[in-house]
Write a structure and sequence with these properties.
With 297 residues, this protein is an alpha/beta fold. It has seven helices and 15 strands. The protein has one domain: 4-Layer Sandwich (Nitrilase/N-carbamoyl-D-aminoacid amidohydrolase), CATH 3.60.110. A hairpin with a 5-residue loop joins strand 13 and strand 14. Helix 4 (162-170) packs parallel to helix 5. The chain is globular and about 50 Å long. The longest helix is centred in the last third of the chain and has 22 residues, at 190-211.
Length: 297
């Protein structure tokens, strides 16, 4: 599809509760607000229809999952069609009994599903017990073609892996998009919290620089208690941001406020930057075979 140079991208950074209807209504209100500000593409945060249920292992939480296509794709597809936008959602997918995925769904301007991405890297850390819930993705790192460009959609933990970003870039992505749910362990010191948040930002800015692409990262905000009572819960750190292909900040949201943000992204800059920083030209593809090994030593 023909590319446009300037794309107005909306980001919806929100809090979430156990009430699905309220969460969905808040997301839709955020979408409408972004569109009123001119957004043509809107990105929602990871698992935006509910709480971050992976804080503990509980089989009842599988009841939150839904089919794709299903209720959420119908509801958000209708909004995409009504407003004439491309919309990136993030859902808990029930694929089959015992097989569940953390899945991003991209909806076209006509409300149809342009494509899906199933989260490839699945963490298993205190308060982030995702391996209990999510089967690793099996759709690969394939960008999704839309009317506003080719979207390299990944999800949260994928943010830490340069391989995923590179694979999307090598397949022709115009931008990298990361719906996210990440926050602080409440017992950590402020210094440790700052180090973690800054590392998260630096890693994604690095993907932008290494691949000459803009990066859009949308994180949730607010405190969510651990429903099992084992930990002190998670304070999601917000800080949704957009950077250009040299890692330059185009916008950085607050840590603890809900925000509906619209940012202008110049897609032509990727071409300009890759001409002066030709990293793809200089890659030694003849020497990288060992990257498919777990460890070399």
């Amino acid at each position: 599809m023909a590319k446009q140079n300037i794309l107005k991208v909306g980001l919806v950074q929100q809090t979430c509760t156990n009430n699905r209807e309220e969460n969905v209504a808040k997301s839709i209100a955020g979408i409408r607000d972004c569109v009123a500000k001119g957004a043509e593409l809107v990105v929602l945060q990871e698992l935006h229809t509910g709480i971050y249920f992976c804080q503990a292992e509980d089989v009842d939480m599988f009841d939150l999952a839904e089919s794709i296509p299903g209720p959420s794709t119908e509801e958000f597809g209708a909004i995409a069609k009504e407003l004439g936008i491309v919309l990136v959602t993030s859902l808990f997918e029930k694929r089959a009994p015992g097989i569940y995925h953390n899945t991003a769904v991209v909806l076209e301007k006509d409300g149809s599903i342009a494509g899906t991405y199933r989260k490839m890297h699945i963490p298993d850390d205190p308060a982030y017990y995702e391996k209990f819930y999510f089967t690793p993705g099996d759709l690969g790192f394939e960008p999704i073609e839309t009317s506003v460009g080719t979207l390299g959609v990944l999800v949260c933990w994928d943010q830490w892996y340069p391989e995923g970003a590179r694979m999307m870039a090598m397949a022709g992505a115009d931008m990298l998009i990361y719906p996210t749910a990440i926050g602080y362990e409440m017992a950590d010191t402020q210094d440790e919290k700052d180090r973690q948040r800054n590392a998260w930002i630096i890693s994604q800015r690095g993907h932008a620089v290494a691949n000459g692409l803009p990066v859009i990262s949308v994180n949730r905000t607010g405190f969510e208690k651990d429903f099992s009572g084992v930990t002190d819960g998670i304070q999601f750190w917000g800080n949704s941001f957009v950077v250009g292909p040299q890692g330059e900040f185009l916008y950085e949201a607050s840590n603890d406020n809900e925000e509906n943000i619209v940012v202008e992204v110049d897609l032509q800059r990727s071409e300009d930057v890759r001409r002066i920083w030709p990293f793809f030209r200089d890659r030694r593809i003849d020497a990288y075979g060992d990257l498919t090994k777990r460890f070399r030593k």
